[in-house]
Amino acid sequence: MAISSRSEDRRVQRTRQLLQQASLDVMQEKGFKATSIQEIAERANVSRGTFYAHFVDKYALLESLLHEEVFQNLISPLPPVSQWDKKTLQRFIRLLLEHFRDVQRQCHPLGAIDPLIERFFQEAVAGLLLMWLKQKRREEVRGTVPMETIAQTMSWAIVGAALQWSLEPATIPSEQMAENVLLTLMEGVERLAPDALPK
């Protein structure tokens, strides 16, 4: 019984992997919007019914890919969120920059990718930052701005910088860009460029 269940689990996992790889192949050729479920199923050599047994639609498939990608490429090289500090946050920003640059090189231009992908990364980054902020003792978190707002604002700044940096010729190395983004987030415009804002 247990052996049969394990082999079924492996078959399910293998089919999911086939569908994920097929979707990546088709998306690289056509972009996400133009990719159809029929093409993914044909490329994976399965029926549409098999596709729907694993995923509700192509957005659910994309979300599963992005979750795995975020974990493997961005989170697993880092210590647990409870141990994050400025140096770890800078490393995370650098990993995100390099990830978007790699995607830009391999696929259609990021500008052509559905905004769902950008939103997914923004929400994933916001979730990580919020966990990090909540790990801090309350007395270490000063001011009246809610932690959720801080995490959301930081995540849009980080993801936006990563998207923009990946679209431009890499004139600034990822390590320097990550440091620039971190300094802007941690010190703010008023301190870095005091004459830029009207009094």
From TrEMBL:
Mind telling me what this protein is named?
A: HTH tetR-type domain-containing protein
Q: Where is the signal peptide?
A: none
Keyword match DNA-binding: yes
Q: Where is the HTH tetR-type domain?
A: 13-73
What PANTHER family does the database record attribute to this sequence?
A: ACREF/ENVCD OPERON REPRESSOR-RELATED, ACREF_ENVCD OPERON REPRESSOR-RELATED
Its lineage reads: Bacteria, Bacillati, Chloroflexota, Ktedonobacteria, Ktedonobacterales
A single GO molecular-function term is: DNA binding
Q: Which UniProt keywords apply?
A: DNA-binding
DNA-binding region, residue range(s) = 36-55
Out of the domains of life, which is the source? Bacteria
